[in-house]
Amino acid sequence: xxxxxxxxxxxxxxxxxxxxxxxxxxxxxxxxxxxxxxxxxxxxxxxxxxxxxxxxxxxxxxxxxxxxxxxxxxxxxxxxxxxxxxxxxxxxxxxxxxxxxxxxxxxxxxxxxxxxxxxxxxxxxxxxxxxxxxxxxxxxxxxxxxxxxxxxxxxxxxxxxxxxxxxxxxxxxxxxxxxxxxxxxxxxxxxxxxxxxxxxxxxxxxxxxxxxxxxxxxxxxxxxxxxxxxxxxxxxxxxxxxxxxxxxxxxxxxxxxxxxxxxxxxxxxxxxxxxxxxxxxxxxxxxxxxxxxxxxxxxxxxxxxxxxxxxxxxxxxxxxxxxxxxxxxxxxxxxxxxxxxxxxxxxxxx
Length: 350
Hints:
By secondary structure, the protein is of the alpha+beta class.
């Protein structure tokens, strides 16, 4: 499921905020946003910008970054000209009056969108872009495009598709740690027979960089030459990568997927663990597994919080999947989703 950075969503619930006369809490999808009091009623449609969305530098959004001068009733000051959008500005998770607000929700009448419906993706129409955090050092140079026969690594947040919780309910499941690093893909490309080491979007030239470092460390090419139909996907973490929140002394890989290129499918979790064990490639840490998934969004958000083992650093969150691969109607694809820790988002300003 492609992430909708800007979409039309319906107000599901409105809650008051204690000791707040001008703002209130609005629930949409699995998210909650602070909005102006009285701006919405339950059932209204509005435009929702997710966390990580970069709004366009237009009059509608300029209030987000304009300086707010302290009012002085005795001063006569000309209004400041609109300030340009600051570099790296993006929608973040914030706390207002002690209440978590994730995203931006604005009335439809502020936009010229014509006839729209709940769930419509308006990202491109509004010119909204995605914020990408600074790339790790030693990323390497581009070798070519990402192998087209392998899905790129991406997980939807549970709040963007809360229906996945009910789809998984009652099924055997696995919950793993979400490592805060940079994702890599490793395969023998059947189109050219070459071993390819890839970042999230492209193949990387073989030199001293993050991705080739872990490929050599775990002898991944040699392992995949024995089973060239398989591709390994995982998270590289260590010094110079996303603040190295796991406090690792050297670059390491934590595999989270094995994809069968011949059959065009991901291996079931137990089969993946067996393959990785045979290859000597470490897998991401399992936090919980069971025979019948019963979690709610609230319990998953609570489970997502915690610290990386042996550190005082907030962990990024968790990834939730069935033990056996399942199709998700809500995602129109593989049933798999992430739950990002709110403590991590607040601390890191994301």
